[in-house]
Specification:
By secondary structure, this protein is an alpha+beta fold. Helix content is 50%, strand content 17%. The strands form three sheets. The chain has a six-stranded mixed β-barrel with strand order 3-4-8-5-7-6. It has a six-stranded mixed barrel with strand order 13-14-19-16-18-17. Strands 12-20-11-21 form a four-stranded antiparallel β-sheet. α2 (17-45) packs antiparallel against α14 (382-408) and α15 packs across α25 (770-796). It starts with a helix and ends with a helix.
């Protein structure tokens, strides 16, 4: 019986090559996209799942309370938190702390600028990163020990054994390689190439910071006892915070310490998708992204299944005689349903085989496109392979279930009337499915259009400063204040360099310092960001001065060289800070603000600065100048002389800091990274939108061909009575225009709802005007017309004599 079913299926495919090709092509493209999306989702869901011993491992995260702003959560925590948890909470069996610092590693006479993880000596016992030959419990036991990744060990020492070799950190700290670690895969939240213990002299974090309960420094992790309840652990931590934090002294707030600093525990494996957006070491994922792309995969497959259903029901009349004959010979309805479902599942499996071929061919391009090493290993990835087979089976069943029910219900006596009886019952269904197909395509098209427009708008927004042609040289704190000044003067002698300034953090960095201010004569607390910047910082960055003046090196009161008192007597603030203090820019001039007992006079007000891009409103900023706390130098280079300027910067750095590797980057590249994830997702989104439209058009092309075939005689009669080619074309175009127009009514409200929510993540965003909806609907209608016109023109030009003899 099944052999007969198979032969019947093959004959049907060969007899209807055109429609079979459309079905097969649609399912193949849909399954290929679904596989690519599943590979991407599998990668997102696999973060840190490969690491052993993480069942009870949690990342410790902190929320700080800011008056008027509420709680602000971050992935970094104060250093004393986890040691206190280990000492006083029995459920905590181990803890570790990790700070990523930029250091110069010297190997022989070669210098390398590297990220170095500074951790507790017990780090490898808590987070079991894969060591090649060392004991995790002792590999960081010595203060002068360092663990290198395989890639770094080979970079420094070639193929020779790195164990026991010596490297020098920051020109003054010899370290012995005590372990080599396997290179970490990309799907981890950690960044680890070089690891040293935090009791080493190379650790840059001062002891005062390690005792500070309100200064966030790096990430921390705790390993809980099996069956320990994280909620109970956090409850036991609250009295520790209340005893240890004096909020009135530290923050001028009358709050318990556990309310000013709230601690959260996030499972180690969950951090990438849930809380990495609070400032983790790598770009964060999100469950919204997972659900979004899973939905896109389902919608694309749904469009392909609609194609199968549409064409199968449309061609039902051609199989009425076959069904009638089988029933006359004794076949019951169950057997016929099995036959037709088998045909659709077989088609889906053939499409799956072709999809696997497409995936194998296009995987290198896809990997380059998404920037991830994604590959399908059929045997080792057997759960994913089974899922893909299940998806293909479900697609075949979904696409074939309705045609199977319709065809199996045909009565032999009614087969001669099939052209009228069946077509009237299934025509409305076909139009409904076309509406859903184009509603999905139009909705995805609107989303792609809005996403790209918003990202372009966010890129072009006025930040309050000029980010172009600015080179940031980090590690300037390795130079003395006088050496930095000499370095700046040397650079300014080069015609390719227009300006040089010094500062602490630069825009788009996560290194943010918040201080508590009061206005003289008022007890109200105001929190503002503080930035240490040289007097020429606003000029080099192209900032706009609204009132007063900038700081000056010629005025001694404008600067402080005291380690304990950061602020000079005079400061410059932004307009947002002036509003925070209750003044207009002009009114703020000459006002006195107080921070921790230090009194400062406002001498200038700058226009608002969007230091974090378009996602957040400009916050209040207070600029001061203390040469002892400078971290970076910013160099404004001439646009047409960038190579010469970079060469001058490198040469000057070697002259003033011969023992430190230069670390420089363009400020614009940091700005670009703000949009990197969104733009990559937008590109993937646009790609799948094109695929969805292509599959919908394939189905429409098949329906148009079928409709033209069924109306051949009608068209011949119309031409005999004087209808022109244009009239016939418009007749067919209008038939398929109504479903596309109706699809807009279905797609628009859904797209508006989801896009409104997405745009709310931007403080500065475009208006969701009707133009985006009308444009997407017009494009969909034009594509539908173009698709149908291919068949319409061909039929309209046919000889009416041939048309009248069609049946």
């Amino acid at each position: 019986m099944y052999r007969n079913y198979l032969l019947t299926t093959l004959r049907h495919v060969l007899r209807n090559k055109y429609y079979s090709f459309i079905n097969l092509a649609g399912l193949t493209i849909g399954l290929s996209c679904a596989i690519f999306i599943l590979l991407f989702l599998r990668d997102e869901l696999s973060y840190d799942a490969w690491l052993p011993g993480t069942d009870n491992l949690y990342r410790v995260e902190a929320s700080f309370y800011f008056p008027g702003r509420g709680l602000e959560r971050g992935a970094t925590v104060p250093f004393p938190i986890t040691p206190a948890m280990l000492a006083h909470i029995p459920e905590v069996r181990a803890q570790t702390h990790l700070i990523v610092e930029r250091m110069t590693i010297k190997v022989g006479d070669r210098l390398f600028a590297e990220y170095v993880d500074v951790v507790d000596p017990s780090f490898f016992g808590v987070i079991r990163l894969p060591l090649i030959a060392s004991d995790p419990s002792t590999v960081l036991a010595r203060p002068d020990s360092i663990v290198l990744s395989q890639a770094l060990a080979e970079k420094y020492f070639g193929h020779s054994d790195a164990i026991g070799k010596t490297v020098v950190l920051d020109g003054a700290h010899p370290m012995t390689v005590t372990g080599v670690m396997r290179d970490l895969p990309h799907n981890t939240q950690l960044v680890a190439d070089a690891i040293i213990p935090n009791n080493s002299h190379a650790d840059k974090l001062p002891l005062s910071e390690k005792d500070a309960w309100l200064n966030v420094d790096g990430e921390a992790f705790v390993d809980l006892q099996p069956q320990a309840d994280p909620a109970i652990v956090l409850r036991k931590l609250k009295p520790i915070l209340d005893r240890s934090i004096d909020t009135r002294k530290e923050m001028n707030l009358n709050l318990p310490g556990s309310e000013a600093l709230q601690i959260h525990l996030t499972r180690f494996e969950d951090a990438h998708l849930t809380t990495d957006n609070y400032g983790g070491m790598k770009a964060a994922g999100s469950w919204t992204r997972i659900y979004g792309f899973a939905t896109i995969a389902a919608l694309i497959l749904l469009i392909a299944c609609f194609n199968f259903t549409n064409l199968a029901t449309a061609r039902a009349t051609t199989r009425a005689r076959e069904v009638s004959l089988r029933k006359v010979l004794g076949a019951d309805r169950r057997q016929l349903i099995v036959q037709f479902l088998g045909e659709s599942v077989l088609t889906a499996f053939v499409a799956l085989i072709l999809a696997f071929v497409v995936v194998e061919v296009l995987t290198p391009l896809y990997d380059e496109f998404v920037g991830l090493p994604l590959a399908l290993h059929y045997l080792s990835d057997w759960p994913l392979t089974l899922l893909i087979v299940a998806v293909a089976t479900a697609a075949g069943l979904l696409g074939g279930i309705y045609p199977a029910l319709v065809l199996s219900a045909i009565r032999p006596a009614a087969s001669l009337r099939m052209s009228s009886a069946l077509q009237s019952g299934t025509g409305s269904l076909r139009m409904t499915l076309v509406i859903f197909q184009f509603a999905i395509s139009i909705g995805l098209g609107i989303a792609a259009l809005v996403i790209f427009t918003q990202l372009r708008y966010a890129r072009q927004i006025d930040l309050g400063f000029d980010r172009d042609n600015l080179v940031v040289v980090t590690g300037a704190n390795n130079l003395s204040p006088s050496a930095r000044d000499d370095f700046a003067r040397t650079l300014l002698q080069n015609p390719a360099i227009l300006g040089v300034t010094q500062s602490g953090p630069v825009p788009f960095e996560h290194d943010v310092t918040i201080s508590n201010f009061t206005v003289a004569g008022s007890e109200q607390n105001h929190l503002a960001r503080t930035i240490d910047a040289a007097p020429d910082f606003p000029e080099v960055y192209g900032m706009k001065l609204l009132a007063g003046r900038t700081l000056s090196r010629k005025r001694g009161q404008d600067a402080s060289t005291d380690e304990q008192h950061l602020f000079g007597s005079n400061v410059v603030i932004t307009a947002a800070a002036a509003r925070l203090f209750g003044f207009s820019p002009q009114q703020a001039l000459g006002r006195t603000i107080i921070q921790d007992g230090d009194r400062m006079t406002i001498v200038g007000v700058l226009d608002d600065l969007k230091m974090d891009g378009a996602r957040s409103r400009p916050g209040p900023i207070v600029f001061y100048f203390n040469p002892t706390h400078i971290q970076a130098m910013s160099v404004r280079v001439r646009g047409g002389a960038v190579p010469a300027a970079l060469a001058a910067i490198d040469e000057g750095w070697r002259g003033f800091a011969p023992g430190t590797a230069i670390r420089r980057h363009f400020l614009g590249s940091m700005f670009d990274r703000l949009f990197q994830t969104d733009e990559k997702e937008g590109e993937m989104f646009a790609l799948f939108v094109v695929v969805a439209i292509l599959i919908a058009c394939l189905g429409l092309l098949g329906l148009a061909a079928f409709t033209a075939e069924r109306r051949t005689k009608e068209i011949g009669v119309r031409k005999v009575f004087g209808a022109r080619t244009g009239d016939i074309v418009w007749l067919l175009l209008s038939q398929f225009s109504m479903p596309v127009l109706a699809a807009n009514l279905l797609a628009w409200p859904v797209a508006w709802y989801f896009l409104t929510g997405w745009l709310e993540s931007f403080a500065y965003r475009i208006a969701l005007t009707p133009a985006y909806f009308l444009a997407s609907g017009a494009v969909a209608l034009a594509i539908a017309w173009l698709t149908v016109a291919v068949q319409a023109v061909q039929v309209a030009r046919a000889d009416p004599i041939l048309a009248l003899r069609h049946e």
